[in-house]
């Protein structure tokens, strides 16, 4: 009896109908994923409770002490008050992102906001201005509290948050392409690097000069986008090389279902409960968006922490990619997302 070749065996297997267990199980798995996806994004929003919002207060010491007492009485955990000498110092603190807003006391009380930093916190401070005006009117005191947006977000509005899309899509797509079409580790490094560099330049042009969503320096914005893509792409490719298809799935789920809702992309970090806020600050999604926001609207803010977070993720991913390739080379019978040897 003639033996069948491996190709013929594969064709025979492919010709067999899919089992009902696989067909039904695939549908249930997709339904479960949809539930997890929705829950991952709704959980931070529905449990949001603003607290520890950095707020500067400037003015005569007795007035500052009185306002601090009022703020504490209204909500002890809502604000973290920092006293500054005058309005100029308050504006400087906002531009450096040391505080999220400010109250300036004097003959003409004023609340300073920064909608480019957070529309939710700006709305909260607007409500505070309405409350203070009501108190002045009830006490028969002259003057009104004006609200000034010292760092306006402009016509871009909430579109700033979609800056994560080129980072997310470019990083994941670059990793999948590197794993499926490229075999050797060095060339996978090259694919990830080219994807990040070219994607950063294209994304910077679309988000910057074209639609004016990120009005910062084009080259810095492009570099930040590229670094975010490299961080996510290297992590997905690295875990995929180590663990195969399961590693790709785990990495993508972590980036999408944890990184996005926990990364303070759709709600400021002060609105997230712990450990979301702390963990999210060290995920590539949140670091990339914070970096892009600072570059575009707060050029005086410190960005070293965000650059470092992205660099660590990129380095860790590239190390996993190389280590996984070496490890898999000695295990030729283990199925992976794509072969790691050869000359492709």
Strand order of the largest sheet: 2-1-3-4-5
Which value, in Å, is the CA radius of gyration?
26 Å
Poorly predicted sequence stretches spanning 5 or more consecutive residues: 333-344
Give the topology string: H per helix, E per strand. HHEHEHEEHEHHHHHHH
In terms of DSSP E residues, the strand content is 5-15%
| Discrete helix count | 12
**Helix/sheet category:** alpha/beta
Give the CA-based shape.
Answer: elongated
Q: Look at the structure and give the mean pLDDT.
A: 86
Helix content: 55-70%
The termini sit apart by: 38 Å
Strand tally is 5
Task: Please tag this protein with its features.
344 residues; alpha/beta; five-stranded mixed beta sheet; 12 helices; elongated; disordered C terminus
Question: Brief description of this entry?
Answer:
The chain is α/β, with parallel strands linked by helices. Helix content is 62%, strand content 7%.
3D structure, described in words:
The chain is of the alpha/beta class and 344 residues long. Helix content is 62%, strand content 7%. It is built from 12 helices and 5 strands. The chain has helices at residues 6-15, 20-46, 61-74, 87-95, 119-138, 164-181, 185-210, 218-243, 245-262, 276-280, 284-297, 304-329, and strands spanning 53-58, 79-84, 101-104, 110-113, 146-149. It has a 5-stranded mixed beta sheet, sandwiched between helices. Strand 3 (101-104) and strand 4 form a beta hairpin. Helix 8 packs parallel to helix 12 (304-329). The two termini are 38 Å apart. 39% of the residues are buried. The model is unreliable at 333-344 (pLDDT under 50).
